[in-house]
From TrEMBL:
It comes from Streptomyces akebiae. The keyword Methyltransferase does not apply. Coiled coil: none annotated. Belongs to the class-IV pyridoxal-phosphate-dependent aminotransferase family. It comes from the Bacteria. This is Aminotransferase class IV. GO terms for molecular function: transaminase activity. PANTHER family: AMINO-ACID AMINOTRANSFERASE, AMINODEOXYCHORISMATE LYASE. The lineage of its organism: Bacteria, Bacillati, Actinomycetota, Actinomycetes, Kitasatosporales.
Amino acid sequence: MRTEIGVQSFLVWNSRDGFTAQENDRGMVIADSWLVQDGRARGYEMHWGRFGGAVGLRGVDRAEIAEFRAAVTAQLPRSGEWFPRVELLAGRPHRLALRLRPAPRLRDTARVWVADRVDPRTRPTVKGPDFAAQGGLRKQARLHGADEAVLLDEDGHAVEGAFSSLLWWDGGDLCTAPDDGRILPGITRRLLLDHAARLGVTVRHTRVSPSRLAGCEVWITSALHGIRVVTGWEPGGVPAPPDPLAGRTWQAHLDTLLEPLPAR
């Protein structure tokens, strides 16, 4: 059943009644989101694979996930720019929900703030459980004139952004943090690493200090913006290297991956 939607809608789903519009519920424990532009999305299967795997571990069976996915796909608008989020809500019995939101203005650059504490997340490989801590860090970043916070490990090395993956260029090598259970398996990051493999670009998995990154072309990547090239670092206002040609070229590749949503 398709429910009429407003500018923003919070819709709770069940297999018997379909979607029901409800008041905003802040009891989310697992989430996933992606950009929809005129009925096209990037990595749609991958986002559902990540979300389905996470909620499956919380006891949601495959048949229910498949029904929910079909209902969400039917509900998504086919015109305009949207940034929907699917959620598993806290409590028993479990509830699945769709938060349908207009996409904010897309950006291709960003300033970053280096967090002043060690990465506080308790479940970094799952999207949702640590949103409160991540949101607090991004709010601090904005107080410092930045768009995103860069998280640090206990050795002072950059891990990833509060709500983004981190990649950078060192010579001709594309670098990113190792998949060691301490980062979110970002979908956009995965698409870029797969593209690097097809092009024969060397990928190095490592962590370095923010001071080392400040001399490189650095990207923060997300499903919403794709690639945002870092243009400056806080504290200190350190500028990034000029003319980030790689960012523009690789974003163009991401744009080619937008595909029509499945039929309703």
